[in-house]
Structures are given as C-alpha cells and as structure tokens.
Design brief:
By secondary structure, the protein is an alpha+beta fold. 29% of the residues lie in helices and 37% in strands. The protein folds into two domains: 68 residues; 120 residues, Gcn5-related N-acetyltransferase (GNAT) (Aminopeptidase), CATH 3.40.630. The protein has an eleven-stranded mixed β-sheet with strand order 1-2-3-4-11-5-10-9-8-7-6, with helices on both faces. A hairpin with a 2-residue loop joins strand 1 and strand 2. Helix 5 crosses helix 6. The model has no long low-confidence stretch (mean pLDDT 94).
C-alpha cells in the first residue's frame, strides 16, 4: 500500500498492473478524491473494497459495478482438519500451459492470473487433479502483506469432494510454509465452497464487498 494525500485526505492505494485498489473509504472521502484520482491514474481500473456497508450513493454516482460479494472465511493451523486425497498433486512446470489455458478460460477475473503466477512462481502454489487432463485446480498465494497469512485465490472443481481435496491441499501447503492462518473469500452463493471450507475448519469472520470501475 502507498500513501497518497489527495485533496488533503490520506488515502492508502495498492497499485498493480494498470489497477489501483482502495479499501474501506467512506462515501464523502470517495467523492472528494474522485476527480484528482482520475488525474493521477488515468485509464486505470479502480477496485474499491469494503468490509462494512459500502457507500452505495457515492458508488452509484461513479457508475461502479459490483465485482464480488464474499464471505471472509479463515482457518488457523490448530483448527485445520485436513482432507487428504492422492488425486491431488502440485502443478509441475511441464503442465503449466494446460493449467494456464484452463484457468484463463474458467476464471478470467481472478487476481492471480496465469501470467502473474508464471512471472512470480515462488510466490504461489498451484495444486491440480489430473486425469489425462487437468479437471480441477486450486491456487494459494504465499507472499501476502501479512507474512503469517496465506490466501486462497481460486478453487475450481467439478464436485464437492474434489473441491474439498483441493482446498485442503493448498491450506496444508500454507501451513507447511510456516503460515499461521489462511484466508478464503467465498462468493455468498457458492454453497459448495462454503461446505468444503466449513468441513476443513474454516470459520466466517466477516464479509468483503468489491466494486470496480474498469477505466477511471
């Protein structure tokens, strides 16, 4: 996060490839910084994240669109209940092209793009279910701002059992890499993901709502 002072308001902005993210800003401050922000980051995508009730009037005036509405699920190492499966294995670089093609097709909005994973391989772990071709995968980031935390970025599977096996594998991987907790943001209407997470010891600790403006 980088601190910007915009119209006298301290704003912490996270910058990445043509995208800026601002967390938990109130409606009045958002309207105050809107025009200067567009001059600082012209053409950038703006992502606004809220862990409380979002300022809907301000967001509507900016034509922001709902990006995701998620439950914030977390598990600590001493609460984790693993579900092991021999069908799940770490992704090898030899199979990366197949994974990338699938990931780009089924999860094009994921923040952990295949290109980002490829460029910063050591920051990520990908586990797959491979039956002559990849039929399920999960991604976890290990290089978070909180060095004690891993974050599950995606789980794609065809069944609850596969989903639970993949989620278990990436969660266990985080703990084996000295993380103390793992966070998993689940879409509110994803019953399969919620069922899997609860079975592995995850608990709901809050929620997250994200909005997006594709070009400011």
């Amino acid at each position: 996060m980088k601190l910007h002072k915009i119209n006298g308001i301290d704003v912490f902005v996270q910058e990445s490839e043509n995208c800026v993210q601002i967390n938990d800003i109130d409606g009045l401050a958002l309207l105050e910084i809107w025009e200067p922000l567009r001059n600082i980051f012209p053409g950038y995508e703006l992502v606004l994240c809220f862990h409380d009730v979002p300022p809907l009037d301000a967001l509507k005036s900016m034509n922001a669109e709902l990006l995701e509405d998620c439950l914030d699920m977390r598990v600590y190492s001493h609460k984790f209940v693993p579900h092991n499966s021999t069908a799940v294995a770490p992704l090898s670089k030899n199979n990366f092209a197949s994974f990338a093609a699938l990931h780009n097709n089924v999860n094009p909005e994921c923040g952990a793009t295949s290109q980002l994973i490829c460029n910063k391989w050591d920051n990520w772990r990908v586990f797959t279910i491979n039956n002559n071709e990849i039929i399920g995968y999960a991604i976890i980031g290990l290089a978070m701002r909180d060095e004690n935390m891993g974050e599950v970025y995606a789980v794609w599977a065809n069944s609850h059992t596969q989903h639970m096996s993949l989620l278990s594998a990436v969660t266990q991987c985080a703990f084996e890499n000295s993380k103390k907790k793992v966070v998993y943001m689940i879409d509110r209407d994803n019953a399969t993901a919620l069922k899997s997470a609860l079975a592995l010891g995850y608990k709901e600790v809050g929620f997250y709502i994200g909005y997006r403006i594709k070009s400011i």
